[in-house]
Amino acid sequence: KNQVEQSPQSLIILEGKNCTLQCNYTVSPFSNLRWYKQDTGRGPVSLTIMTFSENTKSNGRYTATLDADTKQSSLHITASQLSDSASYICVVSERGSQGNLIFGKGTKLSVKP
Amino acid sequence: NAGVMQNPRHLVRRRGQEARLRCSPMKGHSHVYWYRQLPEEGLKFMVYLQKENIIDESGMPKERFSAEFPKEGPSILRIQQVVRGDSAAYFCASSPVLAEYNEQFFGPGTRLTVL
A66-81: per-residue pLDDT in tens? Predict the structure, then answer.
């Protein structure tokens, strides 16, 4: 069964600190992996998209990594800001699925002053 | 260029009524996807449409749910005879081309509450 698991479920960090969120997936055949940020009451916003051949991709203070062999990904946030408080969702696309995305439940990040 | 628009943002229905959720994709986007997010759960794919065609409805319940994307106007997700278990946030996303590799842009969602 195609699944996307994320850890931790929730995380509290102090402003300015770094953090790393984890994602494990069992989706096969694999097409690509995305990280989204979802603010409370809003729709998800894309941060990165990585295909099988990409190991790392950055978007400002966000850096995503992908190990397609172990089916693991991480999202590293550097120098966190209060506005980073949100849910971060790992999403995997199955090859040939015509855009049907498989979502993890997300990690809820709270950045405190 | 306005983003994906959904209305209403909040919808309250009593059991047995019909719910109609609307989604206007971004300008130039002809692919629309509907997702449902139950409380404390991740988003789940429901249906994928191109203009006037349903491409993949594998995630949509067989009964009471239907979706359309007419040649003119927004995409509509219709839920007939709603039940309490239909209470959820419904998100629409759009893309300009087949989105297996391309980004899907999400709307703000419609939060449906069934009393």
Answer: 999 999 999 999 999 9
| Number of inter-chain CB pairs under 8 A, A vs B | 70
B26, β-bridge pairs: none
CB B107 within 8 A of CB B95: no
B109, B46 Cβ separation under 8 angstroms: no
Q: How far are the Cα atoms of A50, A98, A100, A113, B97 from residue B101, in angstroms, in the given order?
A: 9, 9, 11, 37, 9
Nearest CA of chain B to the CA of A11: how many Å? 16
A7: exposed, middle or buried (C-beta count within 10 Å: 0-12, 13-18, 19+)? exposed
Name the strands in the sheet holding B5-7, side by side, starting at the edge strand that comes first in the sequence. B5-7, B19-24, B75-79, B65-68
Residue B102 scores a pLDDT above 80: no
